[in-house]
Amino acid sequence: MRVKFLILLLIVILLTGCSITKSTINISKNYEFNNKLFHYVALMPTKETIIDNETIELIDDEIYDCISSGYYNATVFSQNHINAKINKAKLNADWEIFWNDYLETGFINTTFLDFLGKTLKVDLILQCEVIDIKKTFGIHRKVIGETTAQIKLTMFSTKSGAVIWEAISLGTQGNAHSDQSVPASIEAVEVALDELLDNLPFASNL
Question: The domain spanning residue 66 has which CATH number?
Answer without folding.
Answer: 3.40.50.10610
